[in-house]
Each structure stands twice: as C-alpha cells, then as structure tokens.
Design goal:
It contains nine helices and five strands; from the N terminus they run αβαβααβαβαβααα. It has 271 residues and is α/β, with parallel strands linked by helices. The protein has a single domain (3-20, 35-217, 224-266), classed as Rossmann fold (3-Layer(aba) Sandwich). The longest helix has 18 residues, at 244-261. The radius of gyration is 18 Å and the shape is globular.
Length: 271
C-alpha cells in the first residue's frame, strides 16, 4: 500500500476509534558523509515530543516516544526532548551531550516553539530573533559533525475557531521554522499544518480523545500539568499533551513527512 494511502487509512481508523493534504515540495536533503549499517536519530524538543515513564503507568506520551516503532532495528532513536524545554534550555542542557554522542551519518530532529513563545518567562525567544538563531545553531553544529538535521514545526494545540476548524495558537513560530529550513536547505517536517488538518477532520469533540485528559480515577497517581497557551479557554483541560493514541497519530504524520522530505532517512523506515 503506498505511504500516503497508509496515512489516510490510519486517519480513517482513528475516526472510527474516536466515534465509536497540502504537501510542500521537499528541499534538498543532506547527504551524510558515511552511510553506516547502524544509525542514531536524536530528537530534541519539548513535552509534546518527550518520553514518559511507563512504570508507574501514566497516560501521557510524546510523539517521539512512538518513533522507534517506525524504524528498522538498525536505527536507534535517542530522545532528548524534555518537558518545558525551550530551544535555549535544550542548547544549554541537553545539546552538549547530543553532540558528544553524535557520529557522522546520524540524524537530529528538532522541534521547539510551545515554550519559546511564552513571553515574560525564562527562555522566551522571539520567533524571528533568538528562536531563529537557536534553530540555526542546531543545524550548523549538526552539520559540523557530519550529521543531518531535520526541523519540525510544532504540533498543534487543540483549539478551534467559530467554524470548528483547528486554528494556529503558535503565532509565527511555525513560519520561522519553515524559513530557516528554506534558507539553510534543511528538510522541514510539517507537523503543525498536518496536525491541524487532523484536528479539523476529527472536530472539537472527537479530537479530545487524542489528548491527555484521563477519566477520574483512571490514573490515581497522575498529576496533570497546567495547560498553557493563547486562546485555551479552560486551563484545567489539557489541550497540548497527547495520550498514546494522539502521540501515535502525530508519529504517523512524522513518518509520512520523513518519507516525503528526507529520503535518505526514509530508507530505514518500516514498510
């Protein structure tokens, strides 16, 4: 089954479970200096990408946590995304370790924005200022080590307009990512637009099933984070973080984007 059909099939199955595109031309893909038999894919980002403990069991999952399921066994996913991290925090805290471990031919997927946009808080970075500069540094230092960077626009929050269409709550940050990708010829995984398309398709009610709002008593030890973001009417409802189903759907989008935008990495994806 062709990859696009497979993605649409997964989306249709999601709708069935819950009830009961515009593809950009790919930029030039970096070609690593070597093509090792084994490769690492590092992931740096925020809570929407991060890994979460399975013991004790909790409902929250990041889409990066699901990515090992999409690759052959010769690929190791090294998820260095951290809840609450801005691009600046990652550069100062996690990035040195990533650089120390990176080998020629490895890949890095970079997704920030949810926390960078919070004005008045530590780590705030203007989209076409410090945020852009930080993304450029990730790209430059990855290439300096003969690795291949991939940028990702931030996954959407669950927010809708009066016509029940998902709306952008991330301001200019997704566009800043696209512009860095175009200027530096870095593949951009379009997580933002395609996650908005999925939310619109599902609608306000069914899309709630993708987010981390367990039933009372379902996870007695779970303490939900305070959901933040512009235009989120009820901060007691988490419209940002995903449960396992939501993270899986975001990982589907990421895998499809890798097939379209990064063919050198896509050869390691499972059929």
């Amino acid at each position: 089954m062709p990859p696009l059909h497979d993605f649409l099939r997964r989306t249709f199955l999601t709708i069935l479970l819950l009830s009961g595109p515009l593809w950009a031309d790919p930029p030039r893909t970096d070609q690593p200096a070597v093509h090792p038999a084994k490769v690492k894919v590092f992931m740096v980002g925020d809570s929407t990408m991060a890994d979460y403990h399975l013991n004790p069991a909790g409902p929250m999952r990041g889409w990066g946590q699901l990515m090992p399921l999409y690759f052959h066994s010769n690929v190791t996913i090294v998820n260095r995304a951290v809840s609450g991290h801005t691009s600046h925090a990652s550069l100062s805290q996690r990035w040195p370790g990533v650089l120390a471990e990176m080998q020629p031919g490895d890949y890095v997927i970079i997704q920030f924005g949810h926390n960078d946009m919070k004005e008045g808080k530590p780590g705030y970075a203007a989209p076409f200022g410090a945020y852009t500069e930080n993304l450029e540094r990730f790209v430059r230092e990855t290439r300096d080590r003969q690795g291949s960077p991939l940028l990702a626009t931030s996954v959407a929050r669950r927010a809708f307009d009066e016509e029940n269409k998902a709306r952008n709550t991330l301001g200019d940050y997704p566009q800043a990512v696209r512009e860095v990708g175009a200027r530096l010829e870095v593949p951009v995984l379009e997580m933002n637009l395609h996650s908005m398309e999925l939310l619109t398709l599902l609608g306000p009610e069914r899309s709630a099933k993708l987010f981390c709002n367990p039933e009372a008593g379902e996870y007695p030890d779970y303490k939900p984070p305070r959901a933040e973001g512009p235009g989120l009417a009820n901060p007691a409802v988490d419209n940002t973080h995903f449960n396992a189903m939501g993270a899986s759907r975001m990982a589907d989008i990421a895998a499809q984007e890798i097939r379209l935008k990064a063919p050198d990495l896509a050869r390691w994806l499972r059929d």
